[in-house]
Amino acid sequence: MTGRNLDRGTSVSTVLARRLGGELLRMREACGLRQPHAAETLSASVAKVAKMERGWVPMRDPDIRALCHLYGENDEAVLGRLLTLARTDRERRKARGWWNQYPQLPAMIEYVALEDIATSMRTWELAFVPGLLQTPDYARAVAVGAGSWEDPGEIEPFVEARLARQARLRSDRPLELWAVIHEGALRQLVGGRDVMKEQLGHLLDLAHMGTVKVQVVPFLAGANPGMIGAFSIVSFAEPGALDVVHMDVPSSTLWLESEEDATRHSRIFDRIARMGLAERNALELIEAIRKEM
To answer: How far apart are CA 144 and CA 191, in angstroms?
Structure first.
């Protein structure tokens, strides 16, 4: 599977570019300027400015600085955030937006950038407790068990980064998370019994948050459409923003950004969820497994 809509190179509207263009559009309108004013400042056509604001073309740092100056935006923090969005978007386009090599920490930059601007996420996991729901010891045990770190010193920054991502669950704009987990992931002794007991307790605590929904697909459910592999569907608030499907495979990370791929995986997720236990029954099963530990 590939992100087929990315095969057009840079002529594609990406999530990050739409976010960047939308912010510049709001700045322009707030100060009463029109696209021709921006075009004159950039020595570009009005058509190019329109494409920039809609996220259809990558944006250069000098253009962002010039537009911010034109719009009277002098906050260095705001400028820095826009430049980071643009830089990450350019890197994704250069890599055709769908892979980064794991386990180097920079490989998580684009995913975290998407996660940070997302409003909701649906995730299906076969072998692990989802990263946003992991305890530090569980995350550390997963990293050690992977056995693919060239430098063991990178494990702790990896764990710290994972914990930092979890802040979105409790922020003033919390990420809505719907996690469907296979029973096998809850019984796998990652890090040993004590680590798993703590992890399952943590999962129960998070499941009682209003923005976190946890379901479990039990062994008794038999074959299911998710057996082919785990995936996450990331959704955004921006009008017209397409969902992004994220999948990890042994040698890379896949990004699927076409409407067709998003629709297909949404349907698969719905079928998996229908095979899962109701929330109350799922939490009862998690508690029973925890007591067995």
So the answer is: 9
Helix (H, G, I), strand (E, B) or coil at 57: coil
Alpha-carbon distance of 270 to 217, in angstroms, equals 12
* Helix 15-30 and helix 109-117, axial crossing angle in degrees, nearest 10: 50
Domains of the chain (ranges, CATH numbers):
4-94 (1.10.260.40), 105-292 (3.30.870)
* pTM of structure: 0.70
Interacting residues of 37 by C-beta distance below 8 A, sequence separation 6+: 28, 70
Neighbouring residues of 163: CB distance < 8 A, sequence distance ≥ 6: 136, 139
CB atoms within 10 A of CB 254: 18
pLDDT digit string (tens) for 194-228?
A: 999 999 999 999 999 999 999 999 999 999 999 98
Rounded Cα–Cα distance for residues 80 and 25 (Å) = 17
Q: How far apart are CA 54 and CA 48, in angstroms?
A: 10
Residue 264: predicted pLDDT: 94
**What's the rounded Cα separation, in Å, for the pair 112 and 91?**
14
Q: What is the separation of C-alpha 31 from the centre of its chain, rounded to a whole number of angstroms?
A: 33
pLDDT tens digits, 32-65:
999 999 999 999 999 999 999 988 889 999 999 9
